[in-house]
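Handout for the seminar on molecular recognition.
Each group receives one record of this type.
Step one: identify the two inputs.
Step two: read the structure output and locate the region that could contact protoporphyrin IX containing FE.
Step three: write two sentences on what you found, then compare them with the reference statements printed after the record.
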Amino acid sequence: MSVDAGAFPTRRAKNFPLYTTVSRFVRDPLREILRISTAAGGEVARLDLGASHPYVVTHPDHVQQVLSKESQNFVRDGTFWRPLYGLFGDSIMSEYAEWELSKRVLQPVFSTRTIRSLSDHMARAINEAVRQLDEPARDGRPIEVLPEMGRIVHDTVIKVLFGDKIRQAEADRLIPAMERLATSIAFRFLLPFVPKSIPLPGDRAFAEGLRVMDETLYELVERFRYDAGEGYDIFTALCKARMTEGSGLDDHWVRDNLLAMWATSTETTTVALTWLWPMLDRQPEITGRLRAEIEEVVGDEAVRPEHLHRLPYVKQVIQELLRMYPVGWIFPRIALADTSIGGVPVKAGQTVLISPFLTHRLGSVWERPLEFDPERFTPEQNRARHRYAYYPFGGGPHQCIGRHVFNMEAELILTAILSRYRPSLRPTDGPVEARIGATLRPNQPLYLTLERLERSR
Ligand code: HEM
């Protein structure tokens, strides 16, 4: 479906004075932002936070302007990126020349050829990690969804990031440290304008998580500093680039990129896959169709990458999952020069917030936006849609480098679980809603009971 923004004369953005609704905002910031976006109906909205006035941009044409057509003018800089700079430094998550350099080194690791060669390792790791659910299934013991999805994702991502260069003890240290970072950054993420000198909840846990990450990653870099060896993994690519004469790259650069890749690949994938289960639980007919497709294509076998192109409905379910819960739900840009969006003047230095979560829930862009319906992602519907009606992975030069890795991983995990078990969600404590943080986690722990299917493997 395409939406026509029309040619606007110069106009004012709809202003939303958040300080007048501060109690609502503090109680449930996501609901309040969604209310504002719905009221603005795709027009540019101005959030009045007292000290700052970011614009919220949701219309597909406007998003395209910021992320793609005028990407040179809308950069990743400013207050909202500050909490992330401490984590990622001058890595692929930065901007300008530092970003370009890291992108040049990492892009080849994500080529279709390399990902294909990684895919067998990924499938093996996933089948093995999923098989470990046999024990709780046999005992009738419910599993907690987020940590279990996290365990499966980490076991898989480790192959992509480090190949066979990491020791089990190092991986075991990194996983809980990353979890600490992901959860403790929430306040800094929500209140980026609060200076570091003012302590916020989570600061101490964040510092501790970072210490463990740094210690472990620097140890690894040290071990491979003078001999990167062979491998298709990200770590090898970074070490080789560092060793190249005259590159000027150092251990910090390798560490910054490892941390950036680790953080962007694990938290996002884990949280997205966690949302899958409440979605499927609500609509057994979707699960039934998935099960029938998987039974026909995979049957009694362990899932392999070659199965995936014959599982179109699995793909559609994952695409719809990221429409409802695009876990990289908001990302800011700052304007370098004066311009206008949808007729609204934007001055140099002003912040623009781009949110796939909000665009994906606009009634003018999506019919029945709150309904989980994988039928939206048939090939015909995909062709007819505005490029920026759906952008869980962003767009333009910063478009997610790991999107094919995610798709393959998520499709393999969903298929591996449904081909082995019949999961049912334990009753929840009221409605399952998204809670704001660096990503969009559910507001409560979710539990699945798994019934093992009759299988010869
Ligand atoms: C559900 C899964 C994922 C979602 C929703 C997601 C979302 C995004 C989004 C929205 C951006 C754009 C940020 C911006 O424009 O400022 C991005 C960038 C990025 N993503 Fe992902 N991502 C996911 C998985 C992954 C995975 C699995 C990897 C790595 C294996 C990855 C690595 C990256 C990197 C390195 C960037 C920065 C690219 C650049 O600036 O050039 N992501 N991601």
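Reference statements: The chain has a mean pLDDT of 92. The longest strand covers residues 447-452.
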